[in-house]
Specification:
By secondary structure, the chain is of the alpha+beta class. 47% of the residues lie in helices and 11% in strands.
């Protein structure tokens, strides 16, 4: 298993620890200069990728290439506080890798593990390329397992689908 999240700051390789030092320096510079950039810099390699909570099944290469050209204009990726588990921003992470930029801006969300799938779905539903019907169906089916008392109508509304599409 990769050494990701905040533990990579202390127990990661020398290269990972050096990236954390660079992130700290960049965060201090931004704070001192009153930079308008939101979020804190962390090594993107420290962001933990758990595909089971992310609603998108594919990443569009053209969008990664586009984002790689405008990294400073993009909003921070959304991660779980502490673990740095990715909630929203997979395409932005890939764009940083493509642009060979080691640091990414993040906003931390205080959420427990059971909330992450819902947070990821809601964030992806709110912006970027629309989620496909299959991605919405998958999210709805996972949600009904987590929340079996939801009505078909509530679930369909949450997923942005018709009741017939889900079942």
């Amino acid at each position: 298993m990769a050494n990701t999240g905040l533990e990579s700051r202390e127990t990661g390789t020398a290269a990972q620890q050096e990236l954390w030092i660079q992130a700290d320096e960049k965060n201090a510079e931004n704070l001192a200069s009153g930079s308008p950039l939101a979020g804190d810099f962390v090594p993107w390699s420290a962001v933990e990728l758990d595909r089971s909570i992310l609603p998108r099944m594919t990443i569009q290469d053209a969008k990664v290439a586009e984002y790689a050209q405008i990294l400073d204009q993009l909003p921070p990726v959304l991660v779980q506080c502490g673990s740095l588990k990715l909630i929203d921003g997979m395409t932005r992470i890939e764009a940083h890798a493509k642009a060979m930029q080691d640091l990414v801006r993040v906003n931390c969300v205080d959420a427990d593990d059971q909330e992450l799938s819902d947070r990821a779905f809601e964030a992806n539903r709110a912006h970027g390329a629309p989620l496909s019907v299959q991605e919405r169906i998958n999210a709805a089916r996972a949600k009904i397992v987590r929340e079996p008392n939801m009505t078909q109508e509530q679930l369909a509304q949450w997923a942005g689908l018709s009741e017939r599409t889900i079942y």
